[in-house]
Write the structure tokens for this entry.
Amino acid sequence: MTSRAIAIRCLVEQASSKKPVDQIFASLLGQHPLPDDRDRQLAMALVYGVLRHRQELDAMLQGYSKTKLSKLNPLVLQALRIGLAQLLFMDRIPDSAAVNETVQALGRQPKWLKGFVNGVLRTMVRDIEGVRHRLANLPLENRLNHPRWLVDLWTEQFGIEVCHDICKANNALPPLSLRLNPHKVTRQNFLSQLDEMGITATPGIFADQSVLINDFHGRIDSLPGYDDGWFHVQDEAAQLIAAFFTDLPTGAYLDGCAGLGGKTILLDQVLPADASLATVEPHTDRLALLQENLDRCHCRAISLHTTTLEDFATNNPASFVGVLLDAPCSGLGVIRRQPDIRWNRSLDDLVKLAQGQLKLLHAAAELVCTGGVVVYVTCSLSALENEAVIASFLATHPSFTIMPPQLSGPAQVFISAEGFLCTLPSQGLDGFFAARLIKTNP
């Protein structure tokens, strides 16, 4: 299979299954390997490009297709989207290659089907200036490239201007964001080594140990210090969680939803050297990657528990000074990095997720000692999953109160009047929410 063939099939499966596109992509590459890094990068760029510009692409295609897009064969629709995305948003690909290679990527399909795709795309190439003019003058609702329900949700929460800014940020390619391990390397040394490799990077604005690399298309493990644990990939917004723990005493700490360990590594770097750290991660398929990431970053001895947080709370005393609860959420704050999320979610999902988040928060509360804290975190931009969950929790747990973190420098602007951390993609970070809750009474 070619890059374009994999991209077409990846988008077809994403549209029908609503599975995370990175999982679909990895599965397809497992079945049909692309040995060259450039081919893999092209395939992913095509997939993400379509997902970021889908409404614009469909609005333009409908003007050149005699058949309604909703009536088209799924392979045809995705091939047309991929072909047009190359014509409009990928300047380095010649128009002839964009059309020819996309048609060929359809493989052993009927001649009429491939002919239809070829005909629509070639008609648009002949009228490319007209296509670009129409694109620039599309109604705003098409240029936002987000479903209506999500635009309405953010307009209600943030106002129409901020909503539009969030959508615009989500449609742009974000930088690669790294968190450096201050015990292993200085930021200046790391930036100097990147410069020697010809990689342009800048210090992050809001997190002290962050480095941003724009337009990076290489392998993460090719960066200096990867094997020695100098860094891990983490957005600046997530790195700000360090401030929720740096002023706490030594003792026992728990990462209650460890995932692949990004925030576990962060905790390891900021907690006192003699503090103990444990993790809970119920998904056994993540355990090997979690351990691999902790080993690569040379973390302290961390006990891993493959169980649910509820079961862990039932079998352990309230002995933790701090519990980090990075709760499973809609991911609406990381759409710029995972553009399929906008098409995979619904309003009903947010309600169901909030119910699960509240249950996890109840379990986390059972594990902290008096004077201890629970740090509740999501990468969502939904008040249903954020402020509403905290309000519901506090209504039934009078022994807990909000304890805002002490952020320094420009990051201070992200602390709301209520004491929550709230960041937006329009501010140059992932959308993030965090609340620190201290247990003041037994």
